Amino acid sequence: MHPQLFFFLFITFSFHPCSSQKNIQFKSCAPLPFSCGNFTKNITFPFSIDGTSPGCGLPDLHLSCTSDNLAQLMMNNVSYQVKNIDYEKQIMTIANMAYINIDDSCSYLSINTSFDYSLFDYTGNDHNLTYYGCSIPLNWSSSGFYELCNTGDYYYFIAVAVGVFDPLGYDYCDSRYNVSIGKPYSMDDLMKVLADGFDVMWKPGKDWCDKCVRSGGRCGFDESKPNDPLCLWPNGVEILAGLFELPKLVARLPHRPKSSTQLTYEKFNMGVD
Ligand SMILES: *[C@@H]1O[C@H](CO)[C@@H](O)[C@H](O)[C@H]1NC(C)=O
Ligand SMILES: *[C@@H]1O[C@H](CO)[C@@H](O)[C@H](O)[C@H]1NC(C)=O
Ligand SMILES: *[C@@H]1O[C@H](CO)[C@@H](O)[C@H](O)[C@H]1NC(C)=O
Ligand SMILES: *[C@@H]1O[C@H](CO)[C@@H](O)[C@H](O)[C@H]1NC(C)=O
Ligand SMILES: *[C@@H]1O[C@H](CO)[C@@H](O)[C@H](O)[C@H]1NC(C)=O
Ligand SMILES: *[C@@H]1O[C@H](CO)[C@@H](O)[C@H](O)[C@H]1NC(C)=O
Ligand SMILES: *[C@@H]1O[C@H](CO)[C@@H](O)[C@H](O)[C@H]1NC(C)=O
Hints:
Keywords: Glycoprotein, Signal
Radius of gyration: 24 Å
Membrane topology: Single-pass membrane protein
Bound molecules: 2-acetamido-2-deoxy-beta-D-glucopyranose
Pfam families: GUB_WAK_bind, WAK_assoc
Domain Wall-associated receptor kinase galacturonan-binding: 29-95
GO molecular function: polysaccharide binding
């Protein structure tokens, strides 16, 4: 079936003129300029900043600006620097703030940079780095471990050889840290690689927001149903969940639409492949 016909049909069948989200509007979800240090971006769904209207950006994806002028996102109580947001690819580059301006305390190593899987996914660009915390110095040359840092009575090691023993099997090593990095590291640039961060793909809007934006709409959500897609259009028409994946219908080709509502559909239609 012709894709445009298909699209016209399911919109015709699924239009919800009296949806409950009428308080969330196209114009209130306009992109908001955000500037913090070197980071300058127009912020739209799924992100929010101070001033984002309810329903336009998720509170869990709130960007702020630190006193050091770093764009910040808090996740699982861990503070990340936001280095880039690519709306088209739905990829954000973030770095654990602990790895920036590190001091001699080693405390920056005692943090996992695991992230919130309900909101984010790995991308193909990521690599894992695993290191261990131990109460005695391991002998690197005999054990295959490289010391990253020590506090005097606690030592952090990274395994540099494949197939070395698991230090967690020993009493004196009691912690393991998994950290995401954006590219393979060498010992010389490990701290830089950590500070450069890694890519994550955000999940909210994954399957529909790009289509909504390309059709001239803006993405939003209803706070009572935050997981349901909501595409806002200038004339107030809202398109709800699942519309992009309805089963195919068989019907005759309709005449050219005439009403203003149908014209909007047509515009939407053109925005989708
Ligand atoms: C901004 O960019 C400049 C040059 O790229 C860099 O030296 C500086 O550290 C950056 N500042 C921040 C806050 O990222
Ligand atoms: C934000 O949007 C405005 C208006 O469309 C545009 O002029 C500006 O260049 C954008 N800023 C960034 C950082 O993309
Ligand atoms: C997050 O940090 C706050 C303040 O430091 C603390 O009170 C809270 O328990 C932490 N929450 C989690 C889940 O670790
Ligand atoms: C890193 O670890 C996560 C969680 O165990 C896994 O899903 C991901 O595939 C790993 N990435 C690489 C490049 O090994
Ligand atoms: C580390 O192990 C090597 C080989 O087993 C040994 O020659 C060296 O003395 C050890 N170094 C320390 C500091 O224990
Ligand atoms: C770090 O994360 C790994 C994987 O989730 C977990 O096994 C480990 O206990 C965590 N370490 C600490 C110190 O929280
Ligand atoms: C931690 O990293 C190790 C080694 O890359 C991997 O086998 C393990 O699945 C990771 N665990 C988590 C919870 O990410």
